[in-house]
Write a structure and sequence with these properties.
The complex is a heterodimer of chains A (about 110) and B (about 120). Chain A is mostly beta strands and about 110 residues long. Helices cover about 0% and strands about 50% of the residues of chain A. Chain A has no helices and 13 strands. Chain B contains no helices and eleven strands. The relative contact order of chain B is 0.32. Classes of the chains: A mainly beta (about 110), B mainly beta (about 120).
């Protein structure tokens, strides 16, 4: 199984500041045949299901604010929230879909400082 | 964007079988993969398995011996059975539509299933 390791476990950021979440996979999730990273990011607010934010490591879903961005390749990935808003308080998960079983990181909780 | 809704008992006794159904509305179940994901209270997400509308399945090896997924295209539904449950199976169970080769594009609201005598 591919193990997804997120860091930090939690972070507190002031409103309007940048939040950076890291995700590392135990093996590369980059498919050489199409040069695509099989990595997704989700946002989960309390009492709600996860919401897909980003697929293919950097492709934002329709309707996701552009303050959310994904980057990285191979085994190291980052979700960045520029200018944190109050509604961004949530737990964020990365997930690999390079191979089964599909696996998630343990989540990073983002709070307001 | 389709709407997914989980349904089934919220309480199951240890050693019995957990059964849930996901009803898809706002779109056809045909031509897509559908999935189940669970989340123990206060913990992270675990993929359980996928089913294609044709009935082809892929399971998480950690649960494969206890899981059965099925689909009913006439009702636009797919279902999960997890047998021999223990208290460790207590979780919120989500059904989801699989996007691309394996991310989870749309999610149901989730249903809490508690395993307890």
């Amino acid at each position: 199984d591919i193990v997804m390791t997120q860091s930090p476990d939690s972070l507190a950021v002031s409103l309007g500041e940048r939040a950076t979440i890291n995700c590392k996979s135990s093996q590369s999730v980059l498919y050489s045949s199409n040069n695509k990273n099989y990595l997704a990011w989700y946002q989960q607010k309390p009492g709600q299901p996860p919401k897909l934010l980003i697929s293919w490591a950097s492709t934002r879903e329709s309707g996701v604010p552009d303050r959310f961005s994904g980057s990285g390749s191979g085994t190291d990935f980052t979700l960045t929230i520029t200018s944190l808003q109050a509604e961004d308080v949530a737990v964020y998960y990365c997930q690999q879909y390079y191979s089964t079983p599909r696996t998630f990181g343990r989540g990073t909780k983002v709070e307001i400082k | 964007q389709v709407h997914l809704q989980e349904s089934g008992p919220g309480l199951v006794k240890p050693s019995e079988t957990l059964s849930l159904t996901c009803t898809v509305s706002g779109g056809s179940i045909n031509n897509y993969y559908w999935s189940w994901v669970r989340q123990p209270p206060g913990k992270g997400l675990e993929w359980i398995g996928d089913i294609f509308y044709s009935g082809t399945t892929t399971y998480n090896p950690s649960l494969k011996s206890r899981v059965t997924l099925s689909v009913d295209t006439s009702k636009n539904q797919f279902s999960l059975k997890l047998n021999s449950v223990t208290t460790a199976d207590t979780a919120v169970f989500y059904c989801a539509k699989v996007g691309g080769p394996g991310y989870f594009q749309d999610w149901g609201q989730g249903t809490l299933v508690t395993v307890s005598s």
